[in-house]
């Protein structure tokens, strides 16, 4: 991790924090975001450039979408970067967030053991694959942490009209990296964003078994916390960061970020 970037990475159990000096130090911006933007290395790539361009420092709390939005609701951060459209719309509708902006997208993929005991690689849709996994009682590792990935997974189970209560289903309450490691160790299936997969896959005994289903589209937004609700937040700094991300400089950097020669995210702030 680059020493020039100031990070505060908090575990879920200690995600809520406050410090009275924040109101006085308007050079710092508090960002709550998904573990995927952190574990993929994207923020390590973007933030030094943002800090050079603007002079602002960004304190990052990587805690998953659900916890990130909750920190926004509580006024513990200045902006959020998440990937759960329904939860984000609710966050804005209830007056916690303002100025939601499309930022980028990637996709989810279903990964699992080379042997593929549920033969999901023959399926056309992820819903069919989930049914097959449950049907043979294969091991499935769920993040179980109210993240955007977990919300997507639960939405797919809802489409199957099945409850994920088969004995092979394990809800672990972990971020994407630990969940992938556990799936590899237990030779189970899991749903992951492509960015984190590309960051971890060379350490795992897993492979992509299903991809390309339109249901696996994974959009990210950046949303400011409402300053009318929390006047002491650093709204100005958060707005500078949001502007930078969606303008050509940030968008070009997002598109240029690669791992092992593969682009992880596609910038789409200017798409209608």
TrEMBL record:
Domain of life where this protein originates: Bacteria
Keywords: Signal
Pfam families: PBP_like_2
Domain PBP: 26-248
UniProt-listed SUPFAM superfamilies: Periplasmic binding protein-like II
Signal sequence, renumbered to the chain: 1-23
InterPro entries, per database record: ABC-Tungstate_binding, PBP_domain
Keyword Signal on entry: yes
PANTHER family for the chain: EXTRACELLULAR TUNGSTATE BINDING PROTEIN (PTHR37945:SF1)
Name the UniProt record assigns to this protein: Tungsten ABC transporter substrate-binding protein
């Amino acid at each position: 991790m680059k020493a020039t970037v100031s990070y505060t990475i908090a575990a879920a159990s200690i995600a809520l924090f406050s410090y009275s000096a924040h109101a006085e130090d308007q050079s710092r911006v508090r960002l709550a975001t998904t573990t995927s933007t952190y574990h993929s290395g994207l923020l390590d790539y973007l933030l030094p450039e943002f800090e050079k361009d603007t002079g602002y420092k960004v304190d990052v709390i990587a805690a998953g979408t659900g916890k990130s939005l909750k920190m926004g609701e509580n006024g513990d951060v200045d902006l959020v970067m998440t990937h759960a459209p329904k939860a984000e719309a609710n966050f804005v509708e209830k007056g916690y967030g303002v100025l939601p902006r499309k930022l980028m997208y990637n996709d989810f993929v279903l990964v699992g053991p080379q042997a593929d005991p549920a033969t999901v690689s023959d399926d056309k849709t992820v819903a069919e694959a989930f049914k097959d996994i449950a049907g043979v009682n294969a091991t499935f590792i769920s993040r179980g942490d109210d993240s955007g990935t977990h919300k997507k997974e639960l939405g797919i189970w809802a489409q199957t009209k099945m409850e994920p209560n088969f004995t092979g289903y394990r809800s672990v309450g972990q971020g994407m990296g630990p969940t992938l490691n556990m799936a590899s160790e237990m030779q189970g299936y899991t749903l992951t964003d492509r960015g984190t997969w590309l960051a971890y896959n060379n350490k795992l005994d897993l492979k992509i078994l299903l991809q390309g289903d339109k249901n696996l589209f994974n959009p990210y937004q950046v949303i400011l916390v409402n300053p009318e609700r929390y006047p002491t937040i650093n709204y100005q700094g958060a707005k500078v960061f949001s502007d930078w991300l969606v303008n050509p400089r940030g968008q070009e950097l997002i598109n240029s970020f690669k791992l092992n020669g593969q682009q992880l995210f596609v910038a789409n702030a200017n798409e209608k």
